[in-house]
């Protein structure tokens, strides 16, 4: 897959929307809720939950239609904030959450992929999100001690029961994705992918060929890209009068039409800055420059 996506000298913007599972249209630049919880994904980030509530509502008011969360953010905190802020959900809003990981302390977590565990986690997410159906339910990690067929079989059963619409995977390699696609219909993948970490290029290519959504986590390199670190990134940012973080997000949007970055933040100003990245049209020259080291 070439780094460039437009004719030479083009300033065309990439497609603004993508249909997850072929039926859930979302704006490609979404909002992740990891920034609404405390350090190590433990507890709330703010003493006053209304701060997070206002931020979520601001995101949706600014046009975000994809909210990405997880049951272990807090744990429970992020899902509860999503429901507090946005329920009843607008018809156009897609809520994605994750299960399969149990968090027992800051940055302390354990994979839990037995069928009874996954079913219980999904049921708990349904209650916290105050919904009968989760739009996109992602397996946060494959459990190496449980056959993949058992894990995905449970999610397939939940889908047949109407409790989830689509199934996603988190942190898989290309071989695992191919194997999973033989067991169940996989609508999305979440792997770490950004200007500084392109190790999942083969997974992205597979997703692009099959029309599978790719939600890159740490799209801003866990903050490393927000300051414009790197000569290429800084030069491209200067040409567009943008921040390094905005160019890093714009690069993802131009890189492939299946990439759906969901950067998180606890700051209204940073939220606005991130969302403005969707309006940046990178040229072939920009993309070629960014194809090398950021």
- Note poorly predicted spans: 1-11
Please count the helical segments.
10
- Helices and strands, in order, run as EEEHEHEEEHEHEHEHEHHHH
Q: What is the general shape? A: globular
- By DSSP, the count of extended strands is 11
Q: Distance between termini?
A: 18 Å
Residues in β-strands, percent: 15-25%
Mean of the pLDDT scores?
Answer: 94
The neighbouring-strand order within the major sheet is 3-4-5-8-9-10-11
Helix content: 25-40%
Q: Give a quick account of the main beta sheet: strands, pairing sense, barrel closure.
A: 7 strands, parallel
What is the radius of gyration computed over CA atoms, rounded to a whole number of angstroms? 18 Å
> Which structural class should the secondary elements be placed in?
alpha/beta
Describe how the helices and strands are arranged.
Layout (H helix, E strand, L loop, with lengths): L16 E4 L3 E4 L3 E2 L16 H13 L4 E3 L8 H10 L7 E6 L1 E5 L2 E4 L3 H15 L4 E6 L8 H13 L3 E7 L3 H8 L4 E5 L10 H10 L2 E2 L16 H10 L3 H12 L12 H9 L7 H8 L3
Parallel strand pairs: 3-4, 4-5, 5-8, 8-9, 9-10, 10-11
Antiparallel strand pairs: 1-2, 6-7
Helix pairs in contact: 1-2, 3-4, 7-8
Architecture overview:
It is a single chain. With about 290 residues, this protein is α/β, with parallel strands linked by helices. Helices cover about 35% and strands about 15% of the residues. The protein has ten helices and eleven strands. It has a seven-stranded parallel β-sheet with strand order 3-4-5-8-9-10-11, covered by helices on one side. Strands 1-2 form a two-stranded antiparallel sheet. It has a two-stranded antiparallel sheet with strand order 6-7. Helix 1 crosses helix 2.
